[in-house]
Request: fold
Amino acid sequence: MERAIFPEYLWAFSTLLFLAGIASSCSDRYWLLQKPVAFFIFGDSIFDAGNNNYINTSPRFQANYWPYGESFFNTSTGRATNGRTIPDFISDYAKLPLIPPYLQPDIHDYVYGVNFASIGAGTLVETHPGLVIDLKTQLSNFYKVEKQLRDKLGCEEANTLLSTAVYLFSVGGNDYFAPFQKNTSFFESEYIQKEYTSMVIGTLTNVIQEIYKLGARKFGFMNLTPIGCLPLVKALKRETGGCVQGFTEVAKIHNRALSESLQKLESNLQDFKYSLHDFFTSFGERSENPSKYGN
Ligand SMILES: *[C@@H]1O[C@H](CO)[C@@H](O)[C@H](O)[C@H]1NC(C)=O
Ligand SMILES: *[C@@H]1O[C@H](CO)[C@@H](O)[C@H](O)[C@H]1NC(C)=O
Reply:
């Protein structure tokens, strides 16, 4: 009897080990599948999480002083808001940590992604030159991150990370604000409505293509808000009452061109996927009916 029981006991024990082995390899695989995707953020003040704290610029392009941060972080992080930014909320929903600014000195690990955005930045290097991190420089910073990821993780894992990551953009508004501040009628010229808007969209499109070449596949964008209705714009134009309609028209031209360009990219680039949020409508709706949205 004892001889019979012993092997049975052994069998049960090895079954347990075997099951434990499956469980642990399953949970490993489960963990791999559940690994959060990385989140890379590009653009302007709508997205900056503090990059401009680390560049030599004017306080106009910084948000590292009170009351910025007042209602959430209780410290001025460099986000141009009292609370969290849209990428902060997305990170939260995606169960990612807060995505830090690329220039924050203690940031060396990019497996969850990183934020390249800069207050005041446009797509064009001519937009607030020397005071912001323009989109092309944001792209060169991304090259450095991409190289570091390949060195650290090896090519295969880096490729997986880059191709499953989400790349989010909010940029373009400053390409129109900067010249508007110099000449509040600049947008009336046909050159601005045609060549200039094409140049802004063309520069953004080139950056997207460069990131795609490195393996990026999943992109997200926000279009421009009704920029003629922003208080600063109305104040500069000194128009009483209404919005600067002509300026908002430029945003509409930009938004149509953006949407067309993204559709082209999707049909020309294999596996290119994107989502375009109609910020023009959602922002306009919120500023026209603030109380409906708790403001
Ligand atoms: C928030 O910051 C203010 C000013 O720095 C400080 O007086 C206050 O105690 C802080 N509140 C919390 C909840 O940390
Ligand atoms: C401002 O822009 C308008 C429209 O392009 C132009 O006609 C005008 O000459 C400009 N004014 C100045 C001072 O440059």
